[in-house]
Here is the input.
Amino acid sequence: MTHIDYYFATVSPFTYLAGTRLEEIAARHGATVTYKPLDVMGLFGRTGGQPPKDRHESRRAYRLQEMRRQGAKHGMALNLQPMFWPTNPAPSSYAIIAAQAAGGGDMGALVHGITRACWAEEKNIAEDDVIRAALTAAGFDAGLADSGMLAGAEAYAANLEEAVSRGVFGAPSYVVGDQIFWGQDRLEDLDLHLAGKL
Here is the structure.
């Protein structure tokens, strides 16, 4: 069975803009997915990238144009400058790690719910009540927001190390074997790859 390692950041607008298309693609091809939230700012620092605030003005302007276009293309509400961004991605990432370990809910809905809260609903995804609401909406126990903090922190750090070792340099990235698909705008290529066409 084909497996997809999904490296993403809960504070990434492009993770939000992926919606639940990854899950639709995986279902179509009978592929499994492992969700690997990571510290994208740490990833940039390790792989030659820069946080958005430190990029040249032309790059920052293009990023906003691309966010607006991708939101419109996929019919998704998007605030280009959300009230609670940047924020601490660790608590929401730990909750996702705990939810994956516990099982029983919809992981795609959880990731999308958390990123939507940041990029479309003006909510602070570092706050417990926001995380708990996303867990509940995706069919998980809200108490997962309070459990497994040490294990979550260890997995979060390990995800970053693993991503760097595998050649991942941005989020979201979808990895199948030695093939890396970077960005939600490469989901079509991932789909074609899984179909044996790329």
